[in-house]
């Protein structure tokens, strides 16, 4: 804040992050996290 920056409201930050993900493509290959089939298996086990 010393540089004059202000925090962004959480809802606004979340909305911008989702918009950015959509611009990149939600179905693109990820370089981190579980593969989709492994994630589905984990979720199914819950």
Shape: elongated
How many strands, what sense, and barrel or not for the largest sheet?
none
Uncertain stretches: none
Helices and strands, in order, run as: HH
Query: In what range is the share of β-strand residues?
Result: under 5%
| Helix proportion range | 40-55%
Summary of the model, kept short:
With 46 residues, the chain is mainly α.
Describe it for me?
It contains 2 helices and no strands. It is mainly α and 46 residues long. The model has no long low-confidence stretch (mean pLDDT 90).
SSE order and pairing:
Blueprint: H1 10-24, H2 36-45
Main features:
single chain, 46 residues, mainly alpha, 2 helices, 0% strand, elongated
């Amino acid at each position: 804040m010393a540089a004059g920056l202000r925090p962004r409201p959480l809802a606004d930050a979340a909305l911008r992050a989702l918009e950015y993900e959509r611009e990149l493509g939600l179905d693109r290959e990820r370089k981190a996290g579980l593969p989709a089939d492994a994630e589905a298996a984990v979720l199914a086990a819950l």
